[in-house]
């Protein structure tokens, strides 16, 4: 049987289900990410993975990896948002960041077209979600947190599944990651010039990782199916 998935979510789903319960392979995947030197993976006790999870007004998340340890207070969470090149044109990291930091749109409260799918804005909302988790007291719709850029109030709502996922994130050290079509050199140059607090992983690096692991052979088929619209080879 041949199962195919479309674009970034197709590859992410295939990758995660192919890794399955292989803790060592998950450790290796996390090792691909350009995380800060202060990040120590150590010896995880378990993982919880959320795919395409909604967080109501804080947006959906392409992939969340929750890392559990023997000591619950050591829990870490990785928010991963994925972007692709698409067949129509390139996705440029610096351009996306410049749009995000353009103060004029915030002063005028004018949202530019596509702002909600901007990598930096999406991860900004996930950070806001974690900030909210430290003060949330269960009042649900009666409370919220102000999104500082546009000034609107973001709430988690009362959907049980969303609240269950929200609960899993509490009391954790969070990291915010862009899975992007940029080349390693472009990422390196960008991070030297810009202090964003975010971390990055190139699709090309993930593709090579799959080539090096026999267990991930099916993921290579999904890369092949989406050839030309994930990253520039």
Q: TL;DR?
A:
The chain has 233 residues and is an alpha/beta fold. The chain has helices at 7-19, 23-31, 93-101, 103-107, 119-133, 160-169, 184-193, 203-211, 217-225, and strands spanning 46-54, 60-68, 76-82, 145-146, 153-154, 173-180, 199-202. α1 (7-19) runs antiparallel to α9 (217-225).
Pick out its properties.
233 residues, alpha/beta, 38% helix, globular
- The shape, in one word, is globular
- Weakly predicted, low-confidence segments: none
Number of helices: 9
What is the strand tally? 7
Q: Evaluate the radius of gyration.
A: 18 Å
Amount of beta strand: 15-25%
Helix content: 25-40%
Determine the mean pLDDT.
Answer: 93
Query: What is the terminal separation in angstroms?
Result: 28 Å
Total number of distinct structural domains: 1
Order of helices and strands: HHEEEHHHEEHEHEHH
Query: For the report, how would you describe the main beta sheet?
Result: 5 strands, mixed
What structural class results from the helix and strand content? Answer: alpha/beta
How are strands sequenced across the largest beta sheet?
A: 1-2-3-6-7
Structure commentary:
The protein is of the alpha/beta class. It has one domain. It is 38% helix and 18% strand. The chain has helices at residues 7-19, 23-31, 93-101, 103-107, 119-133, 160-169, 184-193, 203-211, 217-225; strands at residues 46-54, 60-68, 76-82, 145-146, 153-154, 173-180, 199-202. The strands form 2 sheets. It has a 5-stranded mixed beta sheet, sandwiched between helices. Helix 1 runs antiparallel to helix 9. The longest helix is centred in the middle third of the chain and has 15 residues, at 119-133. The radius of gyration is 18 Å and the shape is globular. The mean pLDDT is 93.
């Amino acid at each position: 049987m041949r199962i195919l998935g479309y674009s970034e979510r197709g590859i992410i789903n295939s990758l995660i289900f192919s890794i399955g319960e292989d803790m060592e392979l998950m450790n290796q995947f996390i090792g691909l990410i350009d995380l800060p030197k202060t990040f120590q993976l150590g010896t995880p006790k378990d993982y919880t993975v959320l795919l395409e999870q909604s967080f109501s007004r804080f947006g959906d998340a392409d992939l969340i990896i929750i890392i559990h340890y023997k000591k619950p207070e050591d829990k870490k969470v990785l928010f991963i948002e994925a972007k692709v090149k698409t067949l129509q044109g390139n996705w440029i990291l610096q351009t996306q960041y410049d749009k995000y930091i353009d103060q004029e749109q915030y002063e005028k409260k004018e949202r530019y077209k596509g702002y909600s799918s901007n990598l930096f804005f999406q991860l900004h909302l996930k950070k806001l979600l974690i900030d909210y988790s430290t003060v949330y007291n269960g009042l649900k719709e009666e409370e919220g947190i102000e999104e500082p850029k546009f000034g609107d109030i973001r709430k988690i709502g009362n959907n049980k599944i969303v609240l269950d996922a929200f609960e899993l994130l509490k009391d954790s050290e969070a990291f915010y990651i862009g899975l992007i079509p940029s080349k390693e050199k472009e990422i390196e140059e960008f991070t030297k010039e810009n202090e964003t607090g975010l971390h990055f992983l190139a699709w090309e690096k993930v593709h090579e990782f799959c080539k090096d692991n026999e267990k991930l052979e099916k993921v290579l088929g999904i890369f092949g199916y989406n050839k030309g619209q994930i990253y520039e080879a």
